[in-house]
Design goal:
Layout lengths: L1 H7 L5 E6 L6 H14 L4 E4 L3 E2 L9 H8 L6 H4 L3 E2 L5 H7 L6 H6 L10 E5 L14 H8 L3 E6 L4 H14 L4 E7 L9 H7 L1 H16 L4 E4 L12 H5 L14
Parallel strand pairs: 1-5, 1-6, 2-5, 3-4, 6-7, 7-8
Bound molecules: magnesium ion.
Magnesium ion binds next to helix 2.
Length: about 260
């Protein structure tokens, strides 16, 4: 179903930030990415197909954070045209308001960024295989928009397994994986040395990065430290935005 959507619209270069699950640090990564691209002097669009558990004027909500990172282009409604209050899956949150997620708008909502930006950073909701509506997964929209994906996971126990599973799933959906970012959602533990040895996201991220980089080479495996402004090490994100998508008629193909 994706082929037509991409072919009918000229693709805006960009990246889709997705993750292994909800709450793994996607927005922090997307914000850092947007700021980095904007610092290159490129007008950056920001798009979230649907958000739940927030409102357009929530300063801590994803739509507003993405909008601020991009320098407040257009308006928050352009960043996320479908916002629902309840902190449950989008389809359920919409039903709680007597509404429904608009499947066509999940895809077409990005079009407004074509005339004001050279690249767009899209943030999914939940993980790669999470539903955005009763009919559409994050992976479906990522594929139809044609953007390479950045896969984010939290730097906590299990990140190697979660990340590898999601990278393989992304490729099975026909997506190009641009990079993996381990995001420290929690700060390093203070005090107790034993707890620090086991739970310290710095230690987990270092070990996981080494393992994943070897396993997924030449894919960049990067890190966003807790509270840090930049994803390390620095890479050419603009070049990744322009990576060609896997042809849309090759669903199930590998990169
Ligand atoms: Mg988010």
């Amino acid at each position: 179903m994706g082929g037509t959507a991409v072919n009918q619209r000229q693709r805006l270069p960009g990246l889709c930030v997705t993750g292994t699950d909800t709450g793994v640090g996607k927005t922090a990564v997307a914000v850092a990415l947007v700021r980095r691209l904007a610092a290159c002097g490129v007008p950056v669009g920001v798009y979230k197909p649907v958000a739940s558990g927030t409102s357009a004027d929530d300063p801590h909500g994803d739509p507003r954070r993405l909008w601020e990172a991009a320098g407040r282009p257009l308006g928050v409604a352009a960043v996320c045209p479908q916002v629902f209050r309840a902190a449950v899956a989008p389809a359920e949150a919409a039903r709680a308001e007597g509404r429904a997620v608009d499947d066509a708008l999940l895809r077409s909502g990005v079009d407004v960024w074509r005339r004001v930006s050279d690249v767009v950073v899209v943030e999914g909701a939940g993980g790669l295989c999470s539903p955005l509506s009763d009919a559409t997964l994050v992976a479906d929209v990522a594929r139809e928009l044609g953007h390479p994906v950045v896969i984010v996971d939290d730097s906590r126990l299990g990140c190697i397994g979660r990340t590898l599973a999601t990278v393989h799933a992304a490729r099975a959906f026909g997506l190009v994986v641009a990079a993996v970012v381990l995001s420290d959602v929690t700060p390093p533990p203070a005090g107790d040395a034993r707890a620090a040895a086991v739970d310290d996201p710095r230690r987990i991220a270092a070990a996981a990065r080494e393992f994943l980089a070897a396993r997924l080479a030449p894919l960049p495996v990067l890190r966003l430290a807790h509270g840090a402004a930049a994803i390390e090490p620095e890479i050419d994100w603009l070049a990744l935005c322009r990576l060609a998508p896997v042809p849309t008629d090759s669903a199930g193909g590998q990169r």
